[in-house]
Structures are given as structure tokens and as C-alpha cells.
């Protein structure tokens, strides 16, 4: 695991930046989705509903990449390549509510569907690069 440079922590912890999450499909083709994220315990955390394409691709050990652009300066970004270190339903509902607070200012995730099962993924950074 690599450390995130101090200069990039603001982008990960203080701004409402979206991440473009790249995963790999079973046939080897790339798949990219904009996602909410947070950074805790040295890992980036993302959340999705069971059954979605990215959920099927985000198996523990899978390679992923995230490009996170500064919402205040599109010429500043950080790219993090890593590996899925964990996938759990435990705490995933609370996590999506935390992300809804960060991104929407709402106490609970307003787009929850009946019967939806949330999964929280921890991504361990392996390389970090960027600009700005």
C-alpha cells in the first residue's frame, strides 16, 4: 500500500469531488462509472447496490483505478490505482448515508430502492499520480 501525498488529501477528504471509477469486465474490457467516495484508514471507500455492473467487477483482489478531478480546478487531479481490499454489506447502509450527507447535505440516501442491498468496498492504493 502507498500513502496518499499530503497535497492530495484535501481533494480526498475536504472537497465534494467525484471519482471516475474504472473496473475490468469479465471479458477484459474497461468499465467506468462516476461515484461518490470517501477516504478512511488509508483506503478509498465506494458504495453501490448489489447486482450492478460495478458490484460484479469489484471482487476482492480486483484491480481498479480512480481519477478524481478537483471540482474547483479541472486541471488538478489525482489518479489512484489500486486493488479491492474488502467488500462488505456490514455498515454499507450507514456509509451510503454518510456519502449522501457529504454530497447532497441529506441525512439519508434519497435514492434507495425497496429491497436494495448496499455493499461498501475498500480500495487499497498501489500507486498515486496526478497534476496540479
3D structure, described in words:
Strands 2-1-5-6-7-4-3 form a 7-stranded antiparallel sheet. It has helices spanning 6-13, 53-57, 92-104, and strands spanning 19-24, 30-35, 38-40, 43-49, 63-70, 73-88, 118-131. The chain has 3 helices and 7 strands. The protein has a single domain (6-131), classed as Pnp Oxidase, Chain A, CATH 2.30.110.10.
Which SSEs are present, and which pair or pack?
Layout: H1 6-13, E1 19-24, E2 30-35, E3 38-40, E4 43-49, H2 53-57, E5 63-70, E6 73-88, H3 92-104, E7 118-131
Antiparallel strand pairs: 1-2, 1-5, 3-4, 4-7, 5-6, 6-7
Topology as a string of helices (H) and strands (E): HEEEEHEEHE
Q: What is the fold named in CATH at topology level?
A: Pnp Oxidase, Chain A
Strand sequence of the main sheet, in spatial order? 2-1-5-6-7-4-3
Mean pLDDT rating? 95
Number of strands: 7
Indicate the CATH architecture: Roll
Number of helices: 3
The percent range for helix content is: 10-25%
The low-pLDDT segments are none
CATH class: Mainly Beta
Using only C-alpha atoms, the radius of gyration works out to 14 Å
The 3D shape can be described as globular
- Specify the biggest β-sheet: 7 strands, antiparallel
N-end to C-end Cα span:
23 Å
Question: Concise description?
Answer:
With about 130 residues, this protein is α+β, with helices and mostly antiparallel strands. It has helices spanning about 5-15, 55, 90-105, and strands spanning about 20-25, 30-35, 40, 45-50, 65-70, 75-90, 120-130.
